[in-house]
Structures are given as C-alpha cells and as structure tokens.
Design goal:
By secondary structure, the protein is mainly alpha-helical. The protein contains 4 helices and no strands. It is elongated and about 60 Å long.
Length: about 100
C-alpha cells in the first residue's frame, strides 16, 4: 500500500521525485518484481539457514552446529556478495542495469 500512496502523491506533484509513468513499462516492472523475489530469497537464506543448521540433531532435520560453524557455513555467501559487488553494471548505464536486474 505505501507504493500506491507514493504513486498517487507523485502523480499529482508538479515536479515529482520519480515520475510514475517511468515505472509503467514492462522492463521496470519486471526489474522491480525480480528485485523483490531476489531480496526475499536472500533474506530467507540469511534468516533461515542459521536456524536450520543450529537445530539439534535429535530434531531429525538439524545439524546441531555451533554459532561459529554456522557463521563459517554462511561465509561463502558473504564472500561471493563482496566479490560480485564491483562487477555490478552501474558503469554501463542505468537502463541496462535495470533491464538486467542489477
């Protein structure tokens, strides 16, 4: 609902911060949807993986790891995010970046 309110206010503004008409195309809409899905997946991974691996073995599905082991299991994901950050296509222009989903 905040997005609807934002669009309503911005569409009536003489000088909008973001012109809502720019967001109506297929490319920006797909970019927003892809960004939302990827954000939810990353949040779920960072939130649920530690809970899953810290669950005791007697619960049948857990690994019973310590907090340090859990952090070491998440370390490759953190290293990949840090390594991929400089590769973002921001230098190639905002339109291409938006169409690629970055």
């Amino acid at each position: 609902m905040p997005g609807v309110g934002f669009a309503a206010v911005e569409s009536r503004s003489p000088e909008p911060v973001v012109d809502p008409r720019l967001l109506c195309g297929r490319g920006p809409a797909l970019t927003c949807q892809a960004t939302f899905v990827i954000s939810v997946a990353m949040f779920a991974a960072v939130t649920l993986i530690p809970q899953y691996v810290r669950t005791p073995v007697r619960a049948v599905y857990g690994f019973g790891t310590s907090a340090t082991e859990t952090g070491l299991l998440l370390a490759p994901m953190a290293v990949a995010m840090v390594a991929a950050a400089p590769l973002r296509p921001a230098a190639r222009g905002p339109l291409r970046s938006a169409c690629l989903g970055f």
